[in-house]
């Protein structure tokens, strides 16, 4: 079991660095991240206009909020949600419920397609990835389901950590371009961008550690 997850994590690291195919698979984590924003916006009484996914793995959620707290929680939710989902998926695989990992992701894909994804690349990506997930769930053997779930989970785990590191790095070298960390700094005034960048990276490491500890 240990060798399998280590192998898939190494594969995910290698794959996400490849041109064209790497970004395509990395967008799984981007969608989870943006879904975190969207769900928190809805929970706090806001409205989600759209989610856009781009070929460079970036994503944008357009949402409106009635209150400051709703906007704050929505901004902080993306990285936390992606890290938590990596932990949840590892826990489900540990409990031999790999199929639930794929069902949760397929449900997320379908909801996003129906209500949020509107840009051209986002629609292309989500339709093709839905086709892949559906085929695996219908045609795949138990072993194929297990391996595919572990592969996707490894991608989400790796990307949740690396994307958080990238935001932390940007928060130090270019605070005005550090995405959610910049938004949170603008909203909180006294807490600078670099602090939010560090917070995002630390929480990603903690969830990754908890997930891997549980799996092993």
Brief overview:
The protein has 216 residues and is mainly alpha-helical. Helix content is 78%, strand content 6%.
Relevant terms:
216 residues
Series of H and E elements: HHEEHHHHHH
Shape: globular
Strand content: 5-15%
- Estimate nothing, just give the exact number of structural domains: 1
| Strand order in space, largest sheet | 1-2
- Helix vs. strand class: mainly alpha
General description of the model:
The chain has 216 residues and is mainly α. The chain has one domain. Helices cover 78% and strands 6% of the residues. The protein has helices spanning 2-16, 21-43, 68-94, 98-115, 120-139, 142-173, 179-188, 193-215; strands at residues 47-53, 59-64. Strands 1-2 form a two-stranded antiparallel ribbon.
Give the topology, please:
Elements: H1 2-16, H2 21-43, E1 47-53, E2 59-64, H3 68-94, H4 98-115, H5 120-139, H6 142-173, H7 179-188, H8 193-215
Antiparallel strand pairs: 1-2
